[in-house]
Amino acid sequence: MEIFSRNELYWGKEAQKRLAEKHVAVFGLGGVGGFCAETLARAGVGELTVVDFDTVSESNINRQIIALNSTVGQSKTQLFENRLKDINPEIKLNIVEDFYTDGDLSEIDFVADAIDTMRSKISLLETCINKRIPVISSMGAGNRIDPTQLYISDISEIENKNAPFVSNIIYQLKKRGIEKGITVVASREKPFVLEKISETENITRKNGEKIEFTKITPASTPFVASCAGIYMAYYIVNNIIKNNPPLEGGSKSLISGRGI
Q1: Which end of the chain, C or N, has fewer beta carbons within 10 A?
Q2: Does 154 fall in a domain?
Q3: 202: confidence class by pLDDT, cuts 50, 70, 90
Q4: Does residue 77 sit in helix, strand or coil?
C-alpha cells in the first residue's frame, strides 16, 4: 500500500507484510494508549483491538489525540474506530467499549497496557504472563513534564521503584509471583503534583457487573503521555519487524534501561 511506502524504505516490504499479519491489543485509550494505537496503525499493524469504557472530557484536551472541543462526550473507542479506519481503510478493528477486569486474550500477538486503574492493570499483566503473551506496560506518565527521562526496561530494572503507582504495581505483582518478564516504559523523573485529588468512581460493565474504585487524578502535561505511547508502539513494531519470537513469561526489551 502506498500509505506505508515510506515505512518500507526503512524496514522493507517483508517486514511491512509481517506487520500486516499481526494483531495487537491496546488497553486504555487515554494520553498514552491513544498515541500508541495511532502509531501502530500508521506503522501498518493489520489488526488492532482497542479497549476503553470512557468518553472524552474537557480535561482530556490537553494531551489526548482524539480529544477536541468537538468530541467532548463522545465514546473514545468509536472516535478511534473512525480515526484508525481513516488512516488505514484495510485495518481490522475490534472495538471493546467496556471496563477491563479480565478476559480472553487468545489470538493476540502483543499487548500494549495503558490502563491507569490498579485492579485492571494487575489483572491484565498477570494474564499476559500466564498466557505468555508479550506485553509492554506504561508506568509513570502522570505527574511528569520531561519526556526525555522516559526509558524502556524490564519491570525488574525500574530505577524509581518508590513512585507510589509503580511501587504498588510491583508489590501486587510480586504477591502473585511475578517479578520480571514484563517490559515497561518508565520515567526517571520524580513525580510531582500541586494538589492531590481523588474521588470514588462507579462503573457498570456491559455484563451488568458494578465496580467501585477510588480514582486518583494525576497531573498530566501534553508531553510525557504522548511520548510514552509512541515508545510503546515503537517497541512492539521493532519486535515484529525484527521477527523476534515471544519469550516465555513476557517480552524482552530491545533498549537498555540506561536511556533512549
Answers
A1: N
A2: yes
A3: low
A4: helix
Residue 253: half-sphere exposure toward Cβ, Cα within 13 Å:
23
Q: Which CATH number belongs to the domain containing residue 202 in this structure?
A: 3.40.50.720
Domain-located, residue 159: yes
pTM of model > 0.85:
yes
* pLDDT value at residue 249: 38
Could you tell me if residue 111 is inside a domain?
A: yes
The rounded distance, in Å, linking the Cα atoms of 67 and 222 is 12
The Cα 252–Cα 255 span in angstroms is 9
pLDDT band at 57 (very low <50, low <70, confident <90, very high): very high
C-beta contacts of 66-70 below 8 A and 24+ residues apart: 66/29, 66/34
Task: Kindly tell me the sign of the dihedral angle through the C-alpha atoms of 89, 93, 95, 101.
Answer: negative
CB burial string 213-249: b at 16+ within 10 A, e below: eeebebebbebbbbbbbbbbbbbbbebbbeeeeeeee
Q: Give the domain range for residue 126.
A: 2-241
150 CA to centre of own chain? 14
Using alpha carbons, list the distances in angstroms from residue 161 to 7, 110, 121.
36, 25, 17
Q: Are 190 and 160 in contact, with CB atoms under 8 Å apart?
A: yes
Q: How confident is the model at residue 252 (pLDDT cuts 50, 70, 90)?
A: very low
Distance CA 190, CA 13 (A): 42
69-83, 89-103, 114-128, 224-238: least confidently modelled range: 89-103
What the block records as the C-alpha cell of 215 is: 480514582
